[in-house]
Structures are given as structure tokens and as C-alpha cells.
Amino acid sequence: MSNLLGGWRINLLQTKLLARVERRWIGFAAAIISAFGYGAGAIASKHVVTHMTGPITATAFSLLFGAILVFGLFYRDLKSDLKTAPRKAWIPVSLAGISASIGVTFWFLSMVKLPLVVSAPLVGAYPLVSIILAWLFIRRLDRVTWRTIAGAIVVIAGITLVTTG
Fold this sequence. Notes:
There is one protein chain. With 165 residues, this protein is mainly alpha-helical. It has two domains: 2-112, no CATH class; 125-165, no CATH class. Helices cover 86% and strands 0% of the residues. The chain has helices at residues 2-51, 55-73, 75-84, 90-113, 116-123, 126-137, 146-164. The N and C termini lie far apart (68 Å).
């Protein structure tokens, strides 16, 4: 009997460990796909704001088409979340949308004035802002460790080298 229970515990441990590892890999894959999306978007956006229209119009349409895509792909999830999300959740969601819109708008504006190879790394410094804001506001959710700070310093050094080179 104890062997059976011990085997059950090992299976449970293996299942939990596998779920954690799988979640990490899904997270890494999502981050890499995001990087490709942002990279391709930067190339397309630079072309648009340089040769076709202004940054404000480009921002409006890129956010519109992005919203249509998200709505089309995740309609069922959106419908369910709208029913179950608490009302107070809309405040941070709205702030996130406003912040992202400001970020995209000013990124497009920077592309008009700077080469993409300078603008993109500078905009790519947003994780540093995220680290600082996480440390200030959501310490209970995300830990800022010395390794995180060391990585941020390496990022700053890389951005400095790219923008001055």
C-alpha cells in the first residue's frame, strides 16, 4: 500500500514538475514569437511612417487592425472574460491600453526622426522601465533580484553600444 501511495506521490510530483516546465517553454515560445512580431512590425512601421502616412495615423490603424485580429482570434475568451471579470479590473486594463497606445505612438514618432537601428533598441529598453515599476508597485507579484538588476545593466550597456555605434 505504501509503495502504491509513494508511486502516486511521485506521479503527482512529476505531473506538477512537467506542468511547470511546460508553462516555462510556452512562455519562452510566446516571448520569442512576440520578438518576431515586434521586429517585423518595426520594419513595416518604419516604411509606413517614412513613405506613406504620419505616425498618428499609422498608430490608429495599427491598433485598430490589432484589435480586430485579437477580437477575431479570441472572441470566445473575450466573451467569457467580459462576463466574469470584476468591474475594478477594467481600471488597470484601461491604463494598460492607454500606456500601450502612448508607447506605440511615440515609437512611431521616434521612427520619423531616427534611424530604426537607433529607435528600436531605445524603445527596447522598456523592460528596464518595467523592472523599476515592478519593484515600486508590484513587489508581491514579481521579484526583482540581483540577477535581474545585473541583466538590466547589460541591457543598458548594449543599448548604449547600439545607439552610439
